[in-house]
Amino acid sequence: MDALVDEYLNFLAIEKGVSLNTLEAYSRDLNRYTGFMQERGMSGITGITSTDVIAFLGSLRNNGLTPNSVNRTLAALRGFYKYLLRDKVIESNPIANIELAKVWMRLPDTLSRAEMDQLLEQAAAESPLGMRDRAMLELMYATGIRVAELITVSMNSINWQVGFLIVIGKGDKERIVPVGRPALAFITRYINEGRPKLLKRTMTNVLFVNRSGTGLTRQGFWKIVKKYARKAGLENKVHPHTFRHSFATHLLEGGADLRSVQVMLGHSDISTTQIYTHVTRELLKDIHKKYHPRG
After folding, report:
1. pLDDT digits (tens, 9 = 90+) for 193-234
2. What is the pLDDT of residues 134-154, one digit of tens each?
3. Measured in whole angstroms, how far is the alpha carbon of residue 171 from the centre of its chain?
4. Residue 65: how many other CB atoms lie within 10 Å
5. How much is the pTM?
6. Does an H or E element contain 95, and which?
7. Mean pLDDT, to the nearest integer, of 96-115?
8. pLDDT tens-place string over residues 21-41
9. SS3 at position 135
10. Taking a C-beta distance cutoff of 8 angstroms, is the pair 188, 276 a contact?
11. What superfamily in CATH does domain 113-289 come from?
12. Count of CB atoms within 10 A of residue 232's CB?
């Protein structure tokens, strides 16, 4: 079983090009699965039944894993068994009829438009670091990119004539996201006035650099965000994905279609994007309750 898991992980890395984080998560889940089956006396993959798989998933829940974590493990198993069927290692799939654990949908935390404006205004674009910070925050809100994507944006990632950003997302997948004029203006000022002073004699193609002239880390960016959130009085409402969640929610509130938002966020499955429709429905309910005489 261990050899089959290794073959599958190599397949994901080489042929599918999945990210290192995904590989590590799948490796952890699948090794936990094979270990459990070996403890039950299973010497090979072909002898495993749906009863065995259900027992494994039950053990995860008994050990305190959340429904989301159980579902992630089940997703890893689905891919693994699909690979085994394709290569004719097995003739039947023991998890074919096992459904995902029910997960109560947790709505993402978002800022209102006024709160987002308040947060952005805290980054006064006067010093080189202030110019950089305002440009980063504006770009995050303008495009909904992930923090890991932001810190790898290069100098040639932006098409200035058309006004869009080339993003390298999960699994090294490339997507194109429009960038509005306000964000482009702050980025332009940072490049012309702030970035040269931060670089000093350092050479790098990374767009956003620290005071040493090298690229930022995710932790470094998060410290910057927390500083401005605290100044805006929004510390408890801001987390690493706040800009991304607010970007998607505000687009849908403004009338954008779900498919376009999916493409801009880089979601491979539209069901992932659909959570934001729940946010906008919650907003409509609040408006109805506040303004309708029988709300």
Report:
1. 999 999 988 899 999 999 999 999 999 999 999 999 999 999
2. 999 999 999 999 999 999 999
3. 12
4. 16
5. 0.64
6. none
7. 72
8. 888 989 999 999 999 999 888
9. helix
10. no
11. Intergrase catalytic core (1.10.443.10)
12. 20
On average, the pLDDT of the chain sits at 87
152 C-beta neighbours (distance < 10 Å), count: 18
- The Cα–Cα gap between 131 and 233 comes to 21
Query: Using CB atoms within 10 A of its CB, is residue 288 exposed (0-12), middle (13-18) or buried (19+)?
Result: exposed
**Active-site amino acid positions:** 146, 170, 241, 244, 267, 276
Q: How confident is the model at residue 114 (pLDDT cuts 50, 70, 90)?
A: very high
Query: In sequence order, which residues have a C-beta less than 8 Å from that of residue 137 and are 6 or more positions away?
Result: 119, 120, 123, 225, 228, 243
Domain with CATH 1.10.443.10 in the chain: 113-289
Instruction: Please state, in angstroms and rounded to a whole number, the distance separating the CA atoms of residues 209 and 213.
Output: 5
Q: Is the pLDDT higher at 108 or at 273?
A: 273
CATH 1.10.150.130 residue ranges for the chain: 2-86
Where are the strands (E) in 145-231, listed by range?
A: 158-159, 164-168, 174-178
Provide CATH code, domain 2-86: 1.10.150.130
What tokens were used for 165?
């950003």
* Predicted confidence band of residue 104 (pLDDT cuts 50, 70, 90): very low
By the 10 Å C-beta count (0-12 exposed, 13-18 middle, 19+ buried), 194 is classed as buried
